[in-house]
Amino acid sequence: MQTKVALVAGPTGLVGRELVLALLKSNQHKQVIALSRRPLGPEFSSFGDRLLVRSLPTGNEALHADEFYCALGTTLKRAGSQQAFRSVDYDLVLDLAKRCQAGGTRRMILVSALGASPESALFYSRVKGETERDIKKLNFPELAIYQPSFL
After folding, report:
1. What is the structure's pLDDT at 58?
2. CB 29 within 8 A of CB 2
3. Cα 32 to Cα 46: distance, rounded to the nearest angstrom
4. Distances from the Cα of 81 to the Cαs of 13, 37, 54, 86, in angstroms?
5. From what superkingdom does this record's organism come (predicted)?
6. Which of 29, 65, 109, 149 is in the most buried spot, having the most CB atoms within 10 Å?
7. What are the φ/ψ torsions at residue 120 (nearest 5 degrees)?
8. Which of 5, 12, 14, 19 is nearest to 35 (CA)?
9. DSSP bridge pairs for 111
10. What is the distance between the alpha carbons of residues 83 and 34, in angstroms, rounded to a whole number?
């Protein structure tokens, strides 16, 4: 029986897109909520009301889901500056995780990057590592962090 609700941040990226499709095709979730700034592609049109697309939240409201999948991220080039990159890959990720936790989410899955470390000399890897470190401090009952190679 489908009883779980999954929340996915970053559904238009390479990993996020495949993740949303996999969650919908698995039939283990009654609903998948995709948080996105951009519309999803036509391949998602056949899932009806099981897929809900919402804008990234503003304000401080809690987010309610059983599972939070975070595949949110940008590139330094696309962000335009280190500060803008950090605001997405650290600030926004942490904010969404805290909102999910406040809404009762028990399981978080974070897509990070190979080589992530808060002590890294590379800015990208350092921010990813700081994000991982601070997500761990939130003490979700279930947390999985995946570190794929460069995408």
Report:
1. 84
2. yes
3. 13
4. 20, 19, 26, 9
5. Bacteria
6. 65
7. -65, 145
8. 12
9. 146
10. 25
- Token pair listed for 130: 């700081």
Q: How many Cβ atoms from other residues are within 10 Å of residue 71's Cβ?
A: 25
**Structure token digits, residue 136:** 């761990």
Cα–Cα distance measured from residue 74 to residue 72, given in angstroms and rounded to the nearest whole number: 7
User: What residue spans of the chain are helical by DSSP H?
Assistant: 14-26, 76-79, 82-86, 93-102, 123-136
Please report the domains of the chain, with CATH numbers, ordered by start residue: 4-146 (3.40.50.720)
Long-range contacts: 83-88, Cβ < 8 Å, 24+?
85/123, 85/124, 85/127, 86/127
C-alpha separations of 47 from 4, 6, 72, 73 in Å: 16, 14, 22, 25
Whether the CB-CB separation of 57 and 63 falls below 8 Å is answered with: yes
Question: Which residue type is seen at 42?
Answer: P
Q: How far is CA 16 from the centre of its chain?
A: 8
